[in-house]
Write a structure and sequence with these properties.
Number of helices of chain B: 3
Strand order of the largest sheet of chain B: 2-1-6-5-4-3
Number of strands of chain B: 7
Shape of chain B: globular
Strand content of chain A: 15-25%
Helix content of chain A: 10-25%
Mean pLDDT of chain A: 94
Largest sheet of chain B: 6 strands, mixed
Helix content of chain B: 10-25%
Distance between the termini of chain B: 29 Å
Strand content of chain B: 35-45%
Structural class of chain A: alpha+beta
Radius of gyration of chain A: 24 Å
Number of strands of chain A: 19
Mean pLDDT of chain B: 93
Oligomer: heterodimer
Distance between the termini of chain A: 27 Å
Bound molecules: FE2/S2 (inorganic) cluster, fe (ii) ion
Low-confidence stretches of chain A: none
Largest sheet of chain A: 7 strands, antiparallel
Largest interface: A-B, 41 and 35 residues
């Protein structure tokens, strides 16, 4: 059978720019391998976890950067190390717990042990085994434990979030985000202590980039999501802006809710339900918080690995973990602030019914991404068209534009050389 | 009904057990048949209904995938899944086993049971969709048994894309 996803023909990009993306960009395993190298293994920072998940010395959490599994662990000096989860001896993915507390890391296979910074400490039979007056075995004389530590990543912990990079030459995190994105990051993560509310995890059968696109796409929320358009949480007639960094890779969609209801933007929109009312409106019991300073929603896409959500009182990070070109795991971590009243915590939890794999406005995002992937697979030589608001790339003061998607593919083409 | 706590299973009223089993059978039949409008009727007005990852449940983390606090919220959910959520249609099939009455007190009957939900999408193979344990409290209201609490604690570490219909 002729499998067109493995075609060796050059990827044809539209001469007009990144507003048209060849379907093959989402399904080709060879391209996927290059993406992992260039976006996850080099030059980029990736989301690791929240500081409040590993508050104490010895606390660790297992997670992923791209398709590589890592362990984030806090040492007694308070710093976080991110270590790749494979033993320096013969490769075993030795850590099999999702989280816990440890004083050292030990591989069960031959019991090599590492300190919490990944330095090799103990090697059984390093100097051999004495038997009948002889010493048998032992490592060669030039074996240095210091040559055989775990892969240790560059780490920055910034106002309650841990980021890591396999690339020790990566730019400082603040520069990586850039001056356009940083104020929005620091609006949510301003140094206040966070509290962990819990996780949701889903496997979405679509290419990982589609999730970045979904949250760089202000076109769909008022059309696909009844709850957004009907209750005015996100729609095209709101005071909004779209911001991107100088490279076009990161973005923020910023908006302020309105009262919803009928208007120009609901004309012919079948998802708009004029007479919809909630029998128990506590899921939408929105209370403005002083730190919002205006916007009711800010959705940050930090390329390539994470989305940071503030949608009214609901806060979460959404971590993207690719699983080959055709799927990704989507890990939601909901959080609040240590200073939250019990009522505010309950409100954040109630509003969480809108989000996640069963949420009123998020369940269908996963569904449409799965449908996109199915479409891409059936015709890899075709291309998308993202030309709402024109073909150019730049920040806007409204949300009727696909500029952020174009920005991301402008960057993608530069890095991928396509 | 014997109202004393910690009934030994051997002393459990067989009629109560039959009634509980019937409740679970009717509940499964309802959520598998697509008659979602009948689903809130299995609950008391001030009920709680949760679908929560086992991970959160065991670590004491409060976030649930779905968390409703009244029958009215369940009615809103029915509207949500039938009128507002876009998704690929699917059949679901519940298999509930090992129904265990753990306690009978004046505040209700504590019941636990294993559940397995198989999802079948159009022209696709059937697949394990969600599996876990019900941890429930059942009360008698106007002669019939209803759920005052239903907590679906699921083992499934990764949700296969989305959960739309009630578990
Ligand atoms: S593989 Fe880890 S100690 Fe041998
Ligand atoms: Fe969406």
């Amino acid at each position: 059978m002729n499998d067109r996803t493995h075609s060796t023909a050059p990827l044809e990009w539209h001469p007009g720019g990144p507003s048209r993306v060849p379907y093959r960009t989402y399904v080709d395993p060879a391209l996927h391998a290059i993406e992992l190298e260039r976006f996850f293994n080099h030059d980029h920072w990736a989301y690791v976890c929240l500081s409040c998940e590993i508050p104490n010395a010895g606390d660790f959490k297992r997670t992923w950067i791209g398709e590589r599994q890592v362990i984030a662990v806090r040492d007694i000096d308070g710093t976080v190390s991110v270590l790749e989860n494979h033993c320096a001896h013969r490769g075993a993915q030795f850590c099999q717990k999702d989280h816990g507390n440890a004083t050292e890391l030990v591989c069960p296979y031959h019991q090599w042990s590492y300190d919490l910074k990944g330095n090799l400490q103990g090697v059984p039979f390093l100097r051999g085994v004495k038997s009948n007056g002889r010493i048998n075995g032992g490592m060669p004389g030039d074996f240095r434990k210091s040559d055989h530590g775990l892969t240790r990543l560059k780490v920055e912990e910034w106002n309650g979030v841990v980021f890591g990079s396999f690339d020790t030459a990566v730019a400082p995190l603040r520069d990586y985000l850039g001056p356009e994105i940083t104020p929005w990051y620091e609006r949510i993560f301003d140094g206040r202590s966070l509290t962990l509310l819990g996780y949701n995890r889903q496997r979405i059968p679509g290419n990982w980039k589609l999730m970045q696109e979904n949250i760089k796409d202000p076109y769909h929320p008022g059309l696909l999501h009844t709850w957004f358009v009907t209750f005015g949480l996100w729609r095209a007639d709101q005071k909004s802006s779209l911001v991107m960094d100088a490279h076009g890779r990161h973005a923020v969609m910023i908006s302020s809710k309105n009262e919803g209801g009928k208007g120009d933007v609901t004309q012919g929109v079948t998802s708009f339900k004029e007479n919809m009312t909630l029998k128990d409106a506590r899921v939408l019991d929105v209370v403005p918080e002083p730190w919002w300073k205006g916007p009711t929603v800010t959705m940050l896409t930090l390329f390539p690995s994470v989305i940071i959500q503030q949608q009214v009182n609901s806060l979460s990070t959404r971590h993207i973990v690719p699983v080959g070109p055709d799927a990704f795991d989507f890990h939601w971590t909901h959080f609040g602030y240590a200073e939250d009243t019990p009522e505010m915590t309950r409100r954040r939890l109630r509003q969480a019914n809108l989000f996640g794999p069963a949420g009123y406005v998020s369940a269908d995002d996963g569904e449409v991404i799965e449908m996109q992937q199915a479409g891409f697979r059936q015709h890899p030589d075709y291309q998308t068209v993202s030309e709402l608001g024109g073909r150019d790339i730049g920040s806007t003061d409204h949300n009727v534009s696909e500029t952020l998607i174009r920005g991301m593919y402008g960057y993608y083409r530069k890095v991928m050389g396509v | 009904m014997n109202a004393s706590a910690n009934n030994l299973p051997s002393r459990l009223d067989p009629f109560l057990r039959a009634e509980i089993e019937d409740l679970y059978a009717r509940y499964s039949a309802c959520v598998d048949s697509g008659h979602y409008e009948a689903w809130p009727g299995f609950f008391t007005e001030a009920c709680t209904y949760k679908v929560i990852p086992r991970e959160n449940h065991e670590r004491g983390l409060p976030l649930a995938t779905l968390a409703f606090e009244s029958r009215a919220m369940l009615e809103d959910r029915v509207y949500g899944i039938t009128q507002t959520l876009f998704h690929q249609p699917y059949y679901q099939r519940h298999s509930v086993s090992g129904i265990l009455i753990t306690e009978v007190t004046s505040s209700g009957i504590a019941v636990e049971a294993n559940y397995l939900v198989i999802r079948t999408r159009s022209k696709a193979l059937s697949e394990v969709f969600n599996t876990g344990r019900y941890i429930d409290r059942v009360v008698r209201e106007d002669g019939s048994l209803r759920f005052a609490e239903k907590c679906c604690v699921f083992d499934s570490e990764m949700i296969p894309n989305s959960i739309i219909y009630p578990i």
